[in-house]
Amino acid sequence: MNFNLTEEHMMIRDAARDFARTELLPGVIERDNKQEFPNELVRKMGELGFMGIMVDPKYGGSGMDTISYVLIMEELSKIDASASVIVSVNNSLVCYGLEAFGTEEQKQKYLTKLATGEQVGAFCLSEPEAGSDATSQKTTAIDMGDHYVINGTKNWITSGGRADVYLVIAQTDREKGHKGINAFIVERGTPGFDIGPKEDKLGIRGSDTHTLQFNDVKVPKENRIGEDGFGFKFAMKTLSGGRIGIAAQALGIASGAYELALKYSKERKAFGTEICNHQAIAFKLADMHTEITAARHLVMEAACKKDAKENYDMASAMAKLYASKVAMEVTVEAVQVHGGNGFVKEYHVERLMRDAKITQIYEGTSEIQKIVISRGVLRD
Ligand SMILES: Cc1cc2nc3c(=O)[nH]c(=O)nc-3n(C[C@H](O)[C@H](O)[C@H](O)COP(=O)(O)OP(=O)(O)OC[C@H]3O[C@@H](n4cnc5c(N)ncnc54)[C@H](O)[C@@H]3O)c2cc1C
Question: Which of these CATH numbers, 1.20.140.10, 1.20.120.80, 2.115.10.20, 3.40.630.10, describes 232-379?
């Protein structure tokens, strides 16, 4: 597999890096403290084409490949993983889901605004009793002829309080099990659709996570995505690509922490020399660099497979499993390299350590990734 970046890839990566340093960095600590959604920054990311990176330009997207997507995700996540999860959900769950499986009318009506960042999307699969076991959907969508009526609760929804368009998974026919599940497009403001309070989180605090309530929410039939019963497959297919985005987010968190640790180790002196001259610190940097490089290969492999239209389910699961583990390990060590300074907000590494944890949880926990990988290994 050839991981050499093209000139265009390098330009895209540099544009994302510049944006992260000049626009995301200045307010990142304050947004984390206040749990503030970066509204204005999302608008700017839309202008730069980051909200619809892989979407066909005819639907308002940037028409780039998955490699470009992971490069952008890595650069944004080095600085602000809260901003990058908004980008990731909008791109790989919402825009991809609509572009790959939506009707032409759905694409014209919704995708065109989501891909430009004019609107923000949310993906609603999880429920209080259906997390890892996503087949246990309690939310129902009853077929009423020309419309469906949705009832139930979704929780942990990223951009839940801010989104304009929600892709909602619900059970239509319980007897058919996961083959009786559908996916729907629900607009913000639809009567009976209520947004609950915001979660007070450990990390990615600048992102917006809410519980959503659906009480007799009428959704027109044309808002169902795919054939009747396609909803579970829809969720699994979109999540498989989503995991590449989260793997890239984890990679970015790790590399952001590593870059800070490397710089600090060359500046901070102890026992008459820069701390990087102590082998215990130098070895930490060696381990970080090695692990990050290995994670980057897995992320790039998954992205390349997706671009080559090969099956990438196992590759994306491996990339997410490994990159999220590396993000945890590297951020903990980056705090250690910073000593006491690592424990305060000003030096950024404590936030990166808190942000890293979510990459082992959402879009399938590490345990779920191992189920996907082990099934693949045993099948081959
Ligand atoms: C900040 C945040 C943002 C999120 N954003 C979204 C979103 O936008 N949309 C959305 O739909 N969801 C979202 N989620 C939900 C997320 O995907 C779920 O939290 C995740 O899938 C785990 O589900 P759960 O929390 O119910 O944990 P559980 O499924 O209850 O799991 C608890 C523990 O048991 C383990 N476990 C469960 N089953 C097995 C098994 N078979 N074998 C081994 N171990 C197992 C898990 O790995 C985990 O360690 C978000 C969550 C958070 C915290």
Answer: 1.20.140.10
